[in-house]
Amino acid sequence: MLLTSSQLSMAISSSVVFIFTTLLFLSGYVLQQQTVRSLQAAIRPQPAVVQPPPSPVLAKHFGTPPGHSLFDKYLASNRPKGGWAKVAYVQLLREHLHVCNAVMLFAVLEEQESLAQRVILYPKEWDEKKEAKGKGKLDSDPQVETSKRLLRQAAKRYKVMLQPIQPMVKIGDESVFPLAGLLSLSGYNRVIYLPPSGLILDTSGMDHLFTLPMESTMLGISAGSEDEAHTPSIVLMRPSKESLKETLASLPTDKYTEEGFLSKISLLSDLPEDQIHVLAKTSGLRDEDDAFDADKFMDGTSYVHISDPEILGPEFDVSRQMLASVRPKKHEPKKAWQDIYEKYRQQRMDVCGLDLEPAPKLFKDVARAPEQETLS
After folding, report:
1. Which residues contact 21 (CB under 8 A, 6 or more apart)?
2. By C-alpha distance, which of 67, 82, 63 is closest to 211?
3. In whole angstroms, what is the distance from residue 32 CA to residue 38 CA?
4. Are 198 and 233 spatial neighbours (Cβ–Cβ below 8 Å)?
5. What pLDDT digit, counting tens, does each position of 12-52 carry?
6. How far does Cα 79 stand from its chain's mean position?
7. Cα dist. 179→14, 40, 257, 259, 266 in Å?
8. Which of 75, 143, 246, 251 could form a disulfide with 96 if both were Cys (CB 3.0 to 4.6 A apart)?
9. Torsions phi, psi for 5 (to 5 deg)
């Protein structure tokens, strides 16, 4: 069949149109795919560059206080077992009087960027009193409201975990949560408890204690006058279910006292003084001689346990005559002693918004006995 010239011309024209249409479609498709890939590359998140985790020791900036160089070298190769998430400072509260001191300690830990965890255990009945008030019952104890305010402050500002507790064992006629109950915190490899009251001056020296070799379940560190009973001012514990059960079984069956329990804790005795000056006690300043340097003491000491037998505690506003009769007689130890009490008073006001408590009447009567001595 022969094609006419017009039919041949139409066939050629159709072929040309089809070819160019196909080429145009293919070129458009290629450009579209390139554009899609470019958009995908632009919006796809870039893979994060994996950085090696920083050393907790280096990140803490421990520094080198006088006489600490040997211990800093020891710490550089020894970190808390399990890392800083597995160690904690723990305060066990039973009285409203000691709530502020616990919050003060954690305020310093937060300010100086301690990497250890922080926990406060407090009586659950404090929460129950607050709930009762909300139901229309009158709660006439303002100490409950103050304690709750300070605990909320600790949680919000200083990253403290709050844990209400109930009595754990019954000893005699009393149901108590003994200090040994801290061994129930088995989520931590080690905890440090600081009996009230005291001041943390340098958290790096305190953090060192989490790395100390420890063979027993509990270990105490003591400081103070040689005439005093050596009860620990710092208590280290290795929590576990087994140690909790064993320790609770060893408690007396007739009566429990915190002092009696603390006095039975073995004390650390083999830490050389030239490696770390971690602890001091205000009562021990009376034994210092003329070579004592108050400024070096304040700069080089990590924790001061404020405990003088004649004074109920640094929370109370005692007379100048009583302070004068109790303080050290030597100039430099006296200066350090007064600086510690003043620092505690100022920190109590700054952190808790509380002035010193009025001394109980019985204590005031006893305080009149010492002869008056002017403060200088």
Report:
1. none
2. 82
3. 10
4. yes
5. 888 888 888 888 888 888 888 877 777 766 666 555 444 44
6. 17
7. 98, 61, 10, 10, 15
8. 143
9. -60, -35
| 204 conformational bin, left if phi > 0, alpha if psi -120 to 50, beta if neither | alpha
Any idea what the Cα angle at residue 363 is, between residues 360 and 369, rounded to 5°?
A: 150
Q: Write the pLDDT tens digit of every residue in 102-132.
A: 999 999 999 999 999 999 999 999 988 655 5
pTM (predicted TM-score)? 0.73
Radius of gyration of the chain (CA): 34
Q: In a 3-state reduction of DSSP, which class is residue 186?
A: coil
Give exposure, 306-317, as e/b (b: 16+ Cβ within 10 Å).
Answer: bbbeebbbbbbe
Contact 239, 188 (CB under 8 A): yes
Contact between 305 and 198 under an 8 Å Cβ cutoff? The reply is: yes
Residue 222's closest CA among 269, 286, 282, 180? Answer: 269
**Alpha carbon of 72 to those of 25, 272, 275, 297, 353: distances in Å?**
73, 14, 9, 19, 36
Which of 199, 197, 168 shows the shortest CA–CA distance to 185?
168
Q: How far apart are CA 140 and CA 132, in angstroms?
A: 11
Sign of torsion over alpha carbons 221, 224, 230, 234: negative
